[in-house]
Amino acid sequence: MEREIELRLVARLKAGDPAAFEAIYEAYRPRLFSFLARLSRRRDVAEDLLEETWLRLVARARELTDDTRLGPWLFTVARNLFASWCRHRALHEDRILDVAISWPGPGESPFEATARGETERRLEAALARLPSRDREILLLVAAEEITPSEAASMLGLAPEAVRKRLQRARERLAQAMQEEPDLLREKVG
Amino acid sequence: MRLRVYDADPARVERIRARCVSVLETRRRETEAVGTGPGRRAWLEPALAVGLGVLYLADAVVRALAVCR
Q1: Lower CB count within 10 Å: N or C terminus of chain A?
Q2: Searching chain B, which residue's CA lies closest to the CA of residue A117?
Q3: A50–B23: do the CB atoms touch at under 8 Å?
Q4: Where exactly are the structural domains of chain A?
């Protein structure tokens, strides 16, 4: 979203304009939902946290500063809600479904499904196996293109710590992607 | 890293939209109501209560001082 448009939307949202909310909702909702789904690996949880994130936006709309960057603001709230959910509820790894990689894309042809298939499936599976700290930083910086300095302020870390965490996460992801075919063979075998 | 973008269930998407728009519209109505009848009552009644309270306290202080003298 262009910065000028974003600033206008923030001003209108602060004034309580529902049309501004609609525009922001359409622009960020799928990205936020994908982020939450990949963090939580549960569709129901992702939807609950998504709803709470948007309710927080409208509840705090008047408190937004004029230069608020909506992306980092929304992802920070979503990330904090997920962290809070993790604290209040134990994650049972064996009950978690790989829902994200099994959802069909809207209007996708069989050819498209096959074409995207293998690499994307391996990437999603490798991401799902990473520790949640690694998954979080990769999703924010590598997938959502939030700058390392913005991510640092979102996560309450120094920029250098974010860069190191990101580097480690990339290495672990690469390793997990290499291990993926071996895991598959073990499952099939 | 390009990842597929997913979306929530359409019914849920609409429910969230409706809830948020409802919050914004309620707030807008409240803001617009300031200065009209019910809006005026919202600040006039507490102001009258505070005013009467101050008068009562001032009277009590005056009476207490009169007793002390």
Answers
A1: C
A2: B4
A3: no
A4: 1-103, 107-180
